[in-house]
User: Which sequence fits this backbone?
DNA sequence: CTGTGATCGATACAGTGTATCGATCAGTAC
DNA sequence: GTACTGATCGATACACTGTATCGATCACAG
């Protein structure tokens, strides 16, 4: 082996510039495209043309990356409109809309306290718009709307995924779910449930979300006024 | 090497009896003790004194195991009491209670469709107890209560975990969170939020859950009667 | 030119879910 | 009894994960 053959010079002409924001954006793109389980530090690093350990100079670890992703998307969740009811309704709808654009959000929302800057800014906007409401009532009201939105959106995403998992085709899913339920109901163990599933009108996701939200907003309005 | 030294006879005197239920129970014990991330097929197998691949004779994979765990706990979630409001309230409280006993449930609830036998049996019990309600209204009402319960309970667990993560001590957590918020609020970017956090009474988890639930139940009662 | 402190990333480690496939068994046919 | 068959089981292996360690490399201070 030739002694004077030096190993390739480190070849670090332009160390790819990096920042928390670039990392978070790359992670979000990965999650949007292929789901949360496609987000690994190695893949994020690859996308950014960087070696994995480099990321640890900007983030503490994967958990923090997930937190940062959630907070980044919180920038899109803002109430609009006027009047208490409209503000709260739009808050819930904005949450749902954000989850539609970032399905992985359903897996993370509510999983950890939301104290990032964008989440706090969203909270500020809501609380400010609820000006005039009894100060002791504000947090419970906002918390309730958030809780409903998160739970409802999780169920919605879960159903959508189950559909896709059985082969991309909605009709086929309805059929296979239907036949499974019919077989189960044929045992006679769930008579009341069977009646409802068979006889009730099947609402689409939009209506289901809005009906539940209206229940909640009705109850809130009755206590804090409009 | 001695040719007549046979390798130890397979030493399979009593192949540990196994079943889906044993596997699921072992997994639940692990999750109860150390959280969901402590549930791995290898650890479950170890606890059952079995080699990992053996499990695949009873379950299709880890995802199915998680589904089975959730359905098993659904056996504990049943409405009690009489009257529509009381049935729905107890449903939500039962969900919350189950999560208190199995904190990992907060990570899974709502994440996938609940079509297992115990979940369906719970649905049957609720629907049966709502006898007399307009058939088209039953599912939206139950879905709304479930959505609220799941979302609320996730937030509650998230807060509890954040407390524990900063060192087991609640006072210290309150202090560190408080100082973080104070520092953040000192920037003046969240004036409305700051006012509410500073001036409003801080409710404990029980009250917060019940207040939000009452909002929702009020709204429901106004539409479907009591 | 010579330290020196910071930065970076190759390597390694312990862990994961699960596909593969040879070893081993009970049961049946002769 | 022996020979075959089909089912069962699990050792091994693979690809992948998050991240700790630590030597190599750099810009810069003296």
Assistant:
């Amino acid at each position: 082996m030739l002694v004077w053959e030096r190993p390739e010079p480190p070849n670090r002409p332009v160390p790819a510039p990096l920042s928390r924001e670039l990392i978070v954006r790359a992670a979000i793109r990965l999650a949007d495209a292929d789901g949360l389980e496609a987000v690994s530090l190695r893949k994020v690093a690859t996308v950014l043309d960087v070696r994995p350990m480099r990321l640890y100079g900007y983030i503490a670890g994967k958990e923090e990356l997930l937190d940062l992703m959630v907070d980044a998307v919180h920038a899109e969740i803002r109430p609009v409109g006027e009047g208490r009811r409209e503000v709260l309704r739009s808050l819930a709808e904005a949450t749902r809309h954000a989850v539609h654009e970032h399905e992985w959000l359903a897996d993370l929302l509510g999983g950890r306290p939301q104290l990032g800057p964008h989440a706090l800014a969203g909270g500020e906007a809501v609380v400010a718009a609820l000006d005039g409401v009894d100060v002791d009532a504000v947090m419970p009201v906002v918390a309730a709307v958030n809780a409903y939105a998160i739970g409802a959106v999780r169920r919605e995403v879960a159903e959508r995924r189950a559909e896709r998992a059985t082969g991309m085709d909605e009709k086929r899913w309805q059929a296979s779910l239907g036949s499974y339920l019919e077989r189960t109901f044929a045992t006679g163990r769930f008579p009341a449930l069977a009646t409802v599933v068979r006889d009730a009108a099947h609402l689409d996701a939009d209506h289901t979300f809005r009906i539940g939200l209206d229940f909640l907003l009705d109850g809130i309005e009755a206590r804090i006024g409009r």
